[in-house]
Amino acid sequence: MDDLKAKYLGQIADAADESALETIRVAAVGKKGEVALKMRELGKMTPEQRQVAGPALNALKNEINSALIAKKSGLADKALDERLRTEWLDVTLPTRARRVGTLHPVSQASEELTAIFAELGFSVAEGPRIDTDWYNFDALNIPSHHPARAEMDTFYMHRAEGDDRPPHVLRTHTSPVQIRSMEKMGAPLRIICPGGVYRADYDHTHTPMFHQVEGLALDTDISMANLKWTLEEFVKAFFEVDNVELRFRASHFPFTEPSAEVDIRCSWKDGTLKIGEGDDWFEILGSGMVHPSVIAAGGIDPDVYQGFAFGIGIDRLAMLKYGIPDLRAFFESDLRWLRHYGFQCLDMPSLHGGLSR
User: Can you name the CATH fold of 105-341?
Assistant: First the structure.
């Protein structure tokens, strides 16, 4: 035991780093170390021999462990001294830059869908938020008696008595941009129209101002099959899933014929929405083939060109993707909410680099 003591205490004193120290510990007091093997020999000794050897082995083990702890502490102190000697900080330098500003989830969702539709060949078109009721209603085949044209649903701009100019409204959808784009660019045409819209409604899923994106594709041979493929590719890319199942239900919109509302297969488990799986369906948008009267209102011959259109609520997409429960929170200007749900301003989404990071 004196030889073991001298051997291992010498090795511990000469250890250059913690790795070498661990090797010594395993060889000396590990489960298969020399001290452990000596302790196993106690069973072969007489009671008188065990009374002498047992305490001596325990004392040896404790001494080696104490030496290991002291050496490890010494090595740590030495490493710290070396760091303090070689590392330094110029306290006169500017502080680290902090993130300035946060991108709103609606802006993030708009950037994401713009990147997706750009890959599908769609360009972005914009138009005024205050427009005439002709662009907002008449050109879109919405008759004068339609409920959407009532003042209880639409915000009309004030007109002085005797003013014979056409009524102006806060646009109720971004579809007027489609008419203006057809007038300006003609056909063929492939655009999306994102932006803010206004309707007189307010609850946890509706606000007086919200955001929509409408899409329009016109050509000589476009069909519902092109619409279905486009929407499937968009949903897969936006929700970042490999497979989706969409359900098209017959509906009615004045500006499309035939018209369809689109549901997506999903599941709700523990309050979490999962897209592309499960037995539930969730409505996400309205769509259809553009009504010939709408094409004609845009100055294009409906006997030559046809196309599809769709409208999606950007706020709803953001709620679904990022798990935001109340639409009203989007507009409450709560910085704590924005810091929680916001995005880095300079992380531009792309299909190749990733959408939401």
Answer: BirA Bifunctional Protein; domain 2 (3.30.930)
